[in-house]
Design goal:
Length: 155
Amino acid sequence: MTDSTSSLKGTLQSDLHDSMRAKDKVRSGTLRMALTAVTNAEVAGKEHVNLTDDDVLKVIAKEAKKRKESAAAYHDANRPELASVEEAELEILEAYLPAQLDDAALEEMAKAAVAETGATGMAQMGAVMKVVQPQVAGRADGGRVAAAVRKALQA
C-alpha cells in the first residue's frame, strides 16, 4: 500500500471542494461520482492501492464513455432532458481527459502498427491492437481504435 495520492485524484478532490463552495450541483455530483469510481477501482484488488494518474484517467474515460452511451440511449428514447444531464456530466469529465485523437491521426497510427507487426489480415488484428493501444492511451475510444485498425488491415 502506498501513501502517495495521485495528483489527478487530488485535483478531482480539490475541484469537488471548489464546486461545492460554488453550489454547482451538476459539477459536484459528477466529481463525486468520478471519485467514487476511482475509490472503487482502488479497493477492487486484493489490497487497497492508490491508483496512478494513468489508472485514474482510465477510470474517468470509462465513466465518460458511460455518459456518452447513456446520452445516446436517452436521445433514442426521445428523452432529451435526461440526455442533456448526461451530456453536461460528460463535458465535465472530458475536461480531465487528454485531447482526443482525430480520425486521421488514429488511421495513421493504425497503418504504422500494421506495418510494424507485418499483419496481413484480420487474423492479426489482436497483435496490431496491442501495438496501437499503448500509443493511444485514453486519447480515443476503443471502438474507434478497433475501427481504424480494421480499416488499415483491409487496405
